[in-house]
Write a structure and sequence with these properties.
The chain is mostly beta strands. It has no helices and five strands.
């Protein structure tokens, strides 16, 4: 069974894709990945935190480093 964030690298990988709604994205070169976290209280009040730059582990596809945004 495929997991969240699974990669489909070969034609045979499609056989393991479950028959459920999903999002399939093409692989593109990403120059920089930026995140902004927004939190909302039960009262509806929102607060946002400063943007950060993230670097990912090339094989695990998990965040490895978070930096202050460098433009």
């Amino acid at each position: 069974m495929m997991a969240l964030g699974s990669k489909i690298e070969t034609q045979s990988d499609w056989a393991s894709v479950p028959d459920v709604p999903c999002i399939v994205e093409d692989c593109v070169a990403i120059a920089k990945e930026i995140a902004v976290i927004v939190a909302r209280k039960e009262t509806g009040e929102c607060v946002s935190y400063p943007p950060v730059e993230m670097e990912f582990h090339p094989q695990a596809n998990q965040v490895e480093y978070v930096f202050t945004l460098r433009l």
